[in-house]
Amino acid sequence: MNKYNHADVEKKWQKFWQDNKSFEVDIDKDKEKFYALVEFPYPSGQGLHVGHARPYTALDVVSRKKRLEEKNVLYPMGWDAFGLPTENYAIKTGIHPKKVTEDNVANFKNQLQSIGFSFDWSKEINTTDPDYYKWTQWIFIQMFKKGLAYKKEMPINWCPSCLCGLANEEVVNGKCERCGAEVEQKVRSQWMLKITEYADRLIEDLKDVDYFDRIKAQQINWIGRSIGGQLKFNIAGTEDYLEVFTTRPDTIYGATYMVIAPEHEIIEKYADKITNIDQVRDYRHKASHLSEFERTELVKDKTGVELLGLRAINPFTKKEIPIWISDYVLASYGTGAIMAVPAHDQRDYDFAKKFNLPMVQVVDGGDISKEAFTDIESGKMINSPLFDGLSVKEAKDKAIEYARVNGFGDKKVNYKLRDWIFSRQRYWGEPIPMIYCDKCGWVPLDEKDLPLTLPEVETYEPSKDGSSPISKMTDWVNTTCPSCGGPAKRETDTMPQWAGSSWYFMRYIDPHNHEELASKEARDYWLNVDWYNGGMEHTTLHLLYSRFWYKFLYDLGIAPTKEPYAKRTSHGMILGSNGEKMSKSRGNVINPNDIVSEYGADTLRTYEMFMGDFEKSAPWSTESLIGTRRYLDRVWKLADNLVDGDEYSKDLEIEFNQTIKKVSEDYETLKFNTGIAALMELLNTINKKGSINKTEFKTYLILLNPVAPHITEELWESCGFEGHIVDQTWPTYDEAKTVRDEIEYPVQINGKLRMKLQASKDASKDEVLKMLYESQEGKEIFGGQNIVKEIFVPGKIINIVVK
Ligand code: ANZ
Ligand code: ZN
Predict the structure, then answer these.
(1) What is the per-residue DSSP string for 111-144?
(2) Atom of ligand 1 nearest to the CA of 247
(3) 199-212 burial string, b = 16+ CB within 10 Å, else e?
(4) Quick check: 599 and 626 in contact, CB under 8 A?
(5) Given 3.40.50.10540, 3.40.50.300, 1.10.10.10, 3.10.20.590, which CATH number is that of 740-802?
(6) Distance (Å, rounded) from C-alpha 502 to C-alpha 498?
(7) Nearest ligand 1 atom, CA 226
(8) What's the predicted TM-score (pTM) here?
(9) Is the Cα dihedral 125, 127, 130, 131 positive or negative?
(10) 595-737 in CATH: which number?
């Protein structure tokens, strides 16, 4: 056998797959479909990362195995190419973002192809392609028509450095996720998507999908549904009231003061009654500089100011209580006002301690001289005339019922989830296909005029007033109203990067369709996605947004199922060899190109599948990578020891059956590492034996093929096996033959242990000794020895005495 030259082998088979369209699929109703999806990359200037290769290889393994199991497998790839880094690069260099994107895509595609992924490239999509974003715009228009897209003056998160509005999710610890600048608040008219209307379904329907538990929990926590009541507190001496949202209406008798957000409207309304209004305004001004995150941090020292001259009345005790303002109450959640119950809420407790406010315990238990008692399972109500003796749960219901009957409150469900700010004041995004007419208001573009393409601009820089660079292109901006024909202006904001990725998996199935986002036939056949794997960082927002869009399309009768992804899993990150996140600045980045050229794509793939538990992050190790390459070299050499054979040989039969079983299961359950380990062990057994027959080798190659597709195809061909592995079927095993009826004999020479021998339990002395002397190891040990005695204890031990 010639030397294993990975470069030639890999180029050859990549060309073969391409020429033969091995992975291109069409609808085939006679075959069961399988749709495997991985997150499409943002084609950055840095190129592909070894981290990308881990999830892509994982579902490539699954896809290749499913094809061998006769499934009709769709495994597509594309480009999530709108977004800030490309735009920022365009601003710096003046090169058109389209050109930058093209170059980056070409580089990424080359890299992906060099790793041998079995993507169906005939279905490649690009979110920046007008043929693609035509449908992103179309979906937006449908949302507008259903009242789910609306414009609103919103205090938005404003990054003074990117000059751009940011979604809440893009603000991390009060800083811009991209550039790290301190985020400010700014009011602007924004397009919003009413994702809150889907909040309940986005929780309920999780029961029907197979996601990792922690992913479900993230979805639920992000939506943040809380069930409670809304109660009115009259403001003494006025006709007005303050309304609060509370999850603990049972504690109403312990509400000894109120706290409202510094921005609450009641403050300016009663400015002339509030005797310390200057102090109040001063506090509000200071609070406006803090991010939501800073304001709600639990450990933070509490600050606040009492509104002197204004008091509220507790609707149950009828007592007057003070009203405070504090930044720990957010204007954007609930009603922006709370009833404070210091005995049973830790934030209120800290606040009351600091400002010496009264505390009344209403649930029995704990020690409120030390901390708030927050348990809701154990205690009984006290100091609460209407509820004394009840459990917390009973008191909750009773409080709400009493408030409802008496007209000062009712049940209420609140969500942490906000509507989605969908406008970006940037160039490199999908134009929002809306037109403003003084007479008709906001009118959507006629659907036959889609796509609305991006105009050419002179500079990509947003204007300093925060409008998008497109606003300067007056020829484009000035248009006529689709409804009345009068003069009108186009929207100049663009969509966020989340838009294109919210539905991309629906376009892969029919990417060149000009009439619909995908044909009904394709939708009915391919959807939903059977298995979606992606990064842990995308299991909240991207997942939530795309589930929302899909549900909307389900309501329109376009999506055939309620949920887009039947199964969702996540992989761990690949870290630098020092255990830190790979980054240029840390100098620990591994370039996949270098690995492919030096060790081969199959080595990279096998290594990344072998490096550890798929769900956990793992540090890069060049040493293990080299070890993996050595394993493939040994697989290559197996071809030198090939013998004839139409079935598994007796001594290997059990291990082959066991390995088929293990590998089949492990590839399906993301335990690639243990599946590969089983193949390595089998190789050791074969090498000990010294030969492998054709039937065995074929099975071995097919089992390894999904992980290392190039070397296995090459060996298949060079051994003269018929056809190609892509056309074979996945090996099956016989359950009965996966359990060993064998024992392991320790073999001693003159009482010293030298080797071990597998033999059937009921093999005779003669049979066992024959096996011993004929085995590779046995030959080496006993060849030329002068054997004087053979002691055989059935089922126990063999001792050979030599002179
Ligand atoms: C009285 C009370 C007593 C509360 C008690 C809790 C415990 P979640 O679960 O997050 O919905 N709250 C309401 N609106 C708020 C706002 N805008 N900013 C800050 N806090 C706010 O929490 C609901 C609870 O958070 C509400 O129930 C309210 O405090 C507070 F023993 O009301 B509670
Ligand atoms: Zn009009």
Answers:
(1) HHHHTT----GGG-EETTSHHHHHHHHHHHHHHH
(2) 27
(3) bebbbebbeebebb
(4) yes
(5) 3.10.20.590
(6) 6
(7) 11
(8) 0.86
(9) positive
(10) 1.10.730.10
Closest ligand to Cα 295: 1
> Which H or E run contains 302?
none
Tell me the CA–centroid distance for residue 339 and ligand 1, in Å.
8
Pocket-forming residues, ligand 1, beta carbon under 6 Å: 226, 245-248, 251, 329-330, 333-334, 336, 338-339, 341, 344-345, 414
CA–CA distance from 154 to each of 157, 170, 245, 671, 694 (Å)?
Answer: 9, 16, 22, 47, 70
Q: Give the residue, by CA position, lying nearest to ligand 1 atom 5.
A: 345
Is the domain defined by 226-411 classed in CATH 3.90.180.10?
no
């059990």: which residue's tokens?
A: 654
End-to-end CA distance of the chain: 41
CA of 228 to the centre of ligand 1 (A): 9
- Encode pLDDT of 659-677 as tens digits: 999 999 999 999 999 999 9
At residue 456, the 3 state secondary structure works out as: coil
The list of the chain residues with pLDDT below 70 reads 1, 167-169, 291, 293, 297-299
State which of 242, 248, 266 you would mutate to test the pocket of ligand 1, scoring each by most atoms of that ligand within 8 A of its C-beta. 248
- Specify the pLDDT at position 298: 60
H/E element, 41: none
Query: Domain spans of the chain?
Result: 226-411, 595-737, 740-802
- For residues 493 and 191, the answer to whether their CB atoms sit within 8 Å is yes
Ligand having the closest approach to the CA of 436: 2
User: How far is the centre of ligand 2, averaged over its atoms, from the C-alpha of 451 (Å)?
Assistant: 21
Q: How far is the CA of 384 from the centre of ligand 1 (A)?
A: 20
